[in-house]
Every structure is written in structure tokens, then in C-alpha cells.
Amino acid sequence: MLDVTVIEDPEAAAVSLDPTRARLLAELAAGPASAAMLAGQVGLPRQKVNYHLKALERHGLVELAGERRKGNVTERLMRATAASYVISPLALAAVQPDPDRFRDQLSARWLLALGARLVRDVGTLISGAAKARKRLATYALDGEVRFASAADRAAFVEELTAGVTALIQKYDAPDAEGGRDHRIVVAVHPTVKAQTHENPMVKPQAHES
User: Fold this and answer.
1) Which pTM value belongs to this model?
2) E strands, the chain, where?
3) Is the Cβ–Cβ distance between 208 and 141 less than 8 Å?
4) Beta carbons of 12 and 55 less than 8 angstroms apart
5) Cα(41)–Cα(36) distance, integer angstroms
6) Which residues fall within 8 angstroms of residue 183, CB to CB, at 6 or more apart?
7) Long-range contacts of 20-27 (CB under 8 A, 24+ apart)
8) Alpha-carbon distance 118 to 182, whole Å?
9) Residue 83 neighbours by CB under 8 Å, 6+ apart
10) Could you give the angle at the alpha carbon of 182 between the alpha carbons of 179 and 184, nearest 5°?
């Protein structure tokens, strides 16, 4: 089971957003189960659970983990293909955010567009690397800082911008043969306070990215 996977197909995204199917995914992320076992956990008839499982399986969100005999019946044990899922902007390709359309370093909506592009691009890279059976070279830095004042935050952003710009200028080699372009995204935003969500697929986490 993967830790996280990106859903790029619009139909798969629609299937995953159904509340009942999202609940089944959450149950199967905890471990393999049969339709009969899930029926008792989610309070639905086994036939309805089977219907939803087939839809999830058809879109690669769950898979067969094994089979077992129970009396005269052979039960299929299903499991989620990932512990959690992220829906790529490619699922809404016609209206996906384009950060190049409007650039404003102080705009929260531009930051959101950058984040959406990050999900899209990294999801595509993960899919490609998996098909090619190659490792994907990435790096991420995640941390938190408490600024004493807005002036300190502004000074931090100014120093951060200068530092990253200097590194880019130092290591950028646009004419290097065999080199590979890399995208750098640095973001600063207020920490989100953890809240209680009804959706069992969502686990709130406060973070800076």
C-alpha cells in the first residue's frame, strides 16, 4: 500500500468523493476486509457494499488482497491501494489553476495556484517514475516559525528571497548538456489551526510549506 497517491482521472475523482465510498476507502486503508465485514462497519447491506467496492476497484482505488472460504462462500478481501489520496487539478483540467496567468507574491490565491500546480506536477512525475520503475529525486522542507511582528515577517521574507535568489544564480546552468530543469517553490503562510472534520479521509495537520 502506498502512503499517498494522486488521483488524476475525473471519473476516479468523482468516485472517491462519494461519502459512502470515501468511508469504505478509510476502512480499507486500515486493513483488508470483505464486503460482509464492511457491511457491519458502515451499516449498509452487503450487496450495496459490493456495488461500491466494484466502482472503487474499477478505478484502481482498491484492489484484491486475497480470498478466504467462509462456509460455502468464497469471500474476496479488498484493500485500499493507498493510505490517503490527493485529487490532482488534472481531474478538472479545463479549469485548473494557472499561476503563470497572474503573478503576485503577496497573493494567497496565487500561492494556492502554485500549490495546485505542485500537486499536479509531482503527481504526474510519481506516475511516470512508477511506470518506468525509476526513483524520483525530490526534496521538501517543512517547518514553523513564530514572528514577533509583521515587520519581522517582512524582514524574513526579504532575507529568504535574497538567499534563494542567490542560490539560484549560483547553481543555475542553463547551457549545461545533460542538465535537468528543476522547479523551486518556497511558501510562507499562517499556520492553520487543527479542526475536527467529519470526513474520515481527512486528517487535519497544521503546517508550513
Assistant:
1) 0.80
2) 5-7, 62-70, 73-80, 85-87
3) no
4) no
5) 9
6) 121
7) 20/44, 20/52, 21/52, 21/55, 21/56, 21/61, 22/199, 22/200, 22/201, 23/200, 24/49, 24/52, 24/53, 24/56, 24/62, 25/56, 25/61, 25/62, 25/80, 25/85, 25/201, 26/200, 26/201
8) 12
9) 1, 2, 3, 4, 29
10) 150
Length of the chain counted residue by residue: 209
Q: What is the mean pLDDT of residues 82-100?
A: 94
Instruction: Centre a 10 Å sphere on the Cβ of residue 114 and count the other Cβ atoms it contains.
Output: 19
pLDDT of 8-48, one tens digit each? 999 999 999 999 999 999 999 999 999 999 999 999 999 99
Q: How far apart are CA 9 and CA 26, in angstroms?
A: 20
SS3 98: coil
Residue with cell string 481531474: 91
Whether residue 97 contacts residue 113, with contact meaning beta carbons closer than 8 Å, is answered with: yes
Cα gap 205→37, rounded to integer Å: 30
Name the packing angle between helices 10-17 and 19-29 (round to 10°). Answer: 90
Q: Which of 73, 129, 120 is nearest to 97 (CA)?
A: 120
